[in-house]
Amino acid sequence: MSRPAHRRPEYHKINKDLFVLTYGALVAQLCKDYEKDEDVNKYLDTMGYGIGTRLIEDFLARSCVRRCHSYSEITDIIAQVAFKMYLGITPSVTCNNSSRNEFSLILDKNPLVEFVEELPAGRSSLCYCNLLCGIIRGALEMVHLAADVTFLQDRLKGDSVTEIGITFLKKLDERKYRRKK
């Protein structure tokens, strides 16, 4: 059966609660599979990196953002557009150094921990939301920016805020990524 020409295709969005619960089940399974928190953290980062390298295409197509000219602009776009688009929140941005290559995203509310009250017993170095760091790092790499992305503070660990640190390392060589014509 064909679709009438005047109708737009319907896009189904995953229910946020379902995503958060599924993510919690994933982290719980990883904690069972790996003894060390560092291994779980690395797995979540790697998984996020893979998501970020693919998600950037959707982001660029849907957001219509223009080319950024500074790290500050890039961080603002991540906070005000990307986080809003995919997680429904808008973190605040602070610059952490005079060379303007280190920034923090302060999350007042973290949707990934909506149903989590505390980290599992004996898992004090678990970075529960490390997936977010990998996503940001992967997306930035796909637009030719190398960055170190880590959690600096986490409410699940008793900190007063949740803070993600982004340190821009260098601009990657675009020639290596260009297609041959």
Automatic annotation (TrEMBL):
Main location as per UniProt: endoplasmic reticulum
Keyword Endoplasmic reticulum in annotation: yes
Any one Gene Ontology cellular component term annotated for this protein: endoplasmic reticulum
Subcellular location: Endoplasmic reticulum; Golgi apparatus, cis-Golgi network
Keyword Endoplasmic reticulum: yes
Annotated keywords: Endoplasmic reticulum, ER-Golgi transport, Golgi apparatus, Lipoprotein, Palmitate, Transport
InterPro entries assigned: Bet3, NO_sig/Golgi_transp_ligand-bd, TRAPP_component
Domain of life: Eukaryota
Gene3D superfamilies, per database record: Trafficking protein particle complex subunit 3 (3.30.1380.20)
Single Gene Ontology BP annotation: Golgi vesicle transport
Role according to the record: May play a role in vesicular transport from endoplasmic reticulum to Golgi.
Family per similarity comment: Belongs to the TRAPP small subunits family. BET3 subfamily.
Quaternary context: Homodimer. Component of the multisubunit TRAPP (transport protein particle) complex, which includes at least TRAPPC2, TRAPPC2L, TRAPPC3, TRAPPC3L, TRAPPC4, TRAPPC5, TRAPPC8, TRAPPC9, TRAPPC10, TRAPPC11 and TRAPPC12.
Name this polypeptide is given: Trafficking protein particle complex subunit
Organism: Vicugna pacos (Alpaca)
Gene that encodes the chain: TRAPPC3L
